[in-house]
């Protein structure tokens, strides 16, 4: 485990290991390491895409990837948008089943809150593929498979980059969303790294559910600047949403004199890319390959429709900074790996 290794190191070893991990994560993603074989793509399937919140850049990116990948086969994608409230006990999978789908996508919704619906889907032989529906990847929690970058790996890279950029002198606030297990795993890993950095100081952990962030961020940032002043020089979020909101004039004015460096352990919104390019507020993000994950979702559903097994593919973490933002989709303000994944999937789908 990375955490155990870092805990046994002196400050020099810690920084050396941090630099090495950051360098590997920032390397170009131009080599295909995914599946090389699978069933032919079946035609004309109806998919219900259950979104935790379509206003979230990550969720909308996944949706667009699924639609793009399924177009050639005439897949019909319907949506249910929970507006950030899916994890509050609503029987959302059961609602999707009422729409008579061939398959269901559970995007950003905690599968553990949908146990009854998932059991009904299994009985109806309707496969459900998750995206960030569980902390674990693969077949888990009643899902045919769950697609997700390892949350601990993503969070540790973001935190380690913060350590490197602050020269182990960060005064750090962590922004998280404890309403879902995936974000909880990220914030726990961020905190673990910060505590292992001898010169860093964890100032505060702010639990702000994504659905509430637009209305709460101004008051939270105002309180942080009053409490910590210049001692607050870094912010690490479980996703980019918090920093998207910090661009609002009232919040930006509060941070004008603080020179806070922001880092995200997830998503990779277009606004995050623009901030990194312009050296405005944000210095790094650990984005999801959203379109590529959308194509993988179609591939996994197709494997289920064809009576096969999940591919088992898990993408490796990638760190975007000003140094590598010109590659892997950066010019379009999105993480879209230059590994030719579309052609790789289409090659065996068309056999």
Automatic annotation (TrEMBL):
Limits of the Periplasmic binding protein domain: 47-306
Protein's cellular compartments: Cell envelope
Molecular function terms from GO: carbohydrate binding
Keyword tags: Signal
InterPro entries in the record: Peripla_BP_I, SBP_2_dom
GO CC annotation terms, alphabetical: cell envelope
Domain of life: Bacteria
Gene3D superfamilies assigned to the protein according to its UniProt record, in alphabetical order: 3.40.50.2300
SUPFAM superfamilies in the cross-refs: Periplasmic binding protein-like I
Family membership noted in the UniProt record: Belongs to the bacterial solute-binding protein 2 family.
UniProt-recorded name of the protein: Sugar ABC transporter substrate-binding protein
């Amino acid at each position: 485990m990375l955490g155990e290794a870092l805990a046994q190191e002196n400050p020099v070893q810690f920084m050396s290991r941090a630099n090495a991990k950051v360098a590997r994560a920032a390397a170009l993603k131009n080599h295909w390491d995914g599946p090389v074989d699978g069933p032919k793509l079946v035609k004309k399937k109806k998919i219900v895409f259950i979104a935790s919140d379509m206003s979230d850049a990550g969720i909308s990116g996944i949706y667009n990837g699924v639609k793009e990948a399924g177009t050639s086969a005439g897949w019909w994608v319907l949506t249910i948008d929970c507006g950030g409230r899916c994890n509050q006990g609503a029987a959302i999978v059961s609602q999707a089943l009422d729409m008579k789908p061939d398959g269901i996508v559970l995007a950003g919704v905690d599968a553990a809150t949908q146990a009854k619906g998932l059991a009904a889907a299994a009985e109806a032989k309707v496969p459900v593929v998750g995206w960030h529906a569980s902390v674990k990847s693969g077949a888990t929690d009643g899902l045919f498979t769950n697609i997700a970058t390892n949350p601990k790996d993503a969070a540790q890279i973001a935190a380690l980059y913060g350590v490197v950029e602050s020269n182990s002198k960060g005064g750090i606030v962590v922004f998280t969303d404890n309403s879902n297990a995936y974000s909880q795993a990220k914030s726990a890993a961020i905190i673990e790294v910060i505590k292992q950095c001898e010169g860093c100081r964890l100032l505060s952990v702010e639990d702000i559910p994504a659905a509430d962030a637009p209305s709460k961020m101004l008051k939270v940032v105002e309180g942080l600047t009053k409490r910590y002043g210049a001692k607050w020089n870094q912010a690490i979020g479980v996703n980019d949403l918090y920093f998207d909101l910090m661009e609002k004039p009232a919040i930006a004015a509060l941070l004008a004199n603080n020179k806070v460096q922001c880092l995200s352990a997830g998503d990779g919104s277009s606004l995050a890319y623009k901030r990194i390019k312009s050296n405005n507020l944000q210095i790094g993000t650990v984005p999801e390959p959203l379109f590529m994950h959308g194509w993988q979702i179609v591939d996994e559903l197709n494997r289920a429709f064809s009576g096969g097994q999940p591919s088992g593919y898990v993408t490796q973490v990638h760190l975007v900074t000003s140094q590598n933002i010109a590659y892997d989709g950066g010019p379009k303000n999105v993480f879209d790996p230059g590994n030719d994944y579309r052609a790789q999937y289409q090659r065996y789908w068309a056999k």
